[in-house]
Amino acid sequence: MSDISLSSPGGRETLILASKSAARRAMLENAGVPFEVRVAGVDEDAIKAVSTDLDPAGLAVRLAEAKALAVSRDDETAWVLGSDQTLAFDGGLISKAKSLDAARERLKSMRGRIHHLHSGAALAVKGEIVWSGVDTVEMRMRDFSDAFLDAYLAAEGEALLACVGSYRLEGMGSQLFAAIDGDYFTVLGLPLWPVLAELRRAGVLSA
Fold first, then answer.
1. Which of 4, 34, 118, 173 has its C-alpha lying 20 to 30 A from 162's C-alpha?
2. Crossing angle of the two packed helices 146-156 and 100-110, in degrees rounded to 10
3. What is the pTM of this model?
4. pLDDT digit string, tens, across residues 117-128
């Protein structure tokens, strides 16, 4: 872990969230973390294509690091938090559905079964990764009916296409599940507890 420290002119550390995720923004806001948002704009498909050596958890970290670095290299006056999430199911990786029909078929294949969500995060400063980590949650879907699935898709709509698993646990998606084993914040897309610990170390938050 690096000992790099950086102070803004006002004496308080500055944090940038390199993500357009509304869920991640809400988590940090609700935790009282001061930050601004700057979307990284990295080519996730290209990173995945050259990361076949990594397991899903490792890939989540690599994507998070790429986002953090992309913004940090353009702004050396702030700490940058990158985060990403991968979903492992049936021996492979699941990507975001491109249509509601695709989401329907994916959820049908996952019902009554277990999948795993990996949420990676990374902090960068002055173009260097100074911390990264990942947390994993086991998700057990219940054997829901086709009628419930249709009602769910109609209620949630195309907002689901922004979610890697075609569900939002903070919404009606909670009804898709029988149980989860792990941290709720990790499901939402950020390993919040270790991130907060690192932000305290960085001086963004009071210790």
1. 34
2. 140
3. 0.89
4. 999 999 999 999
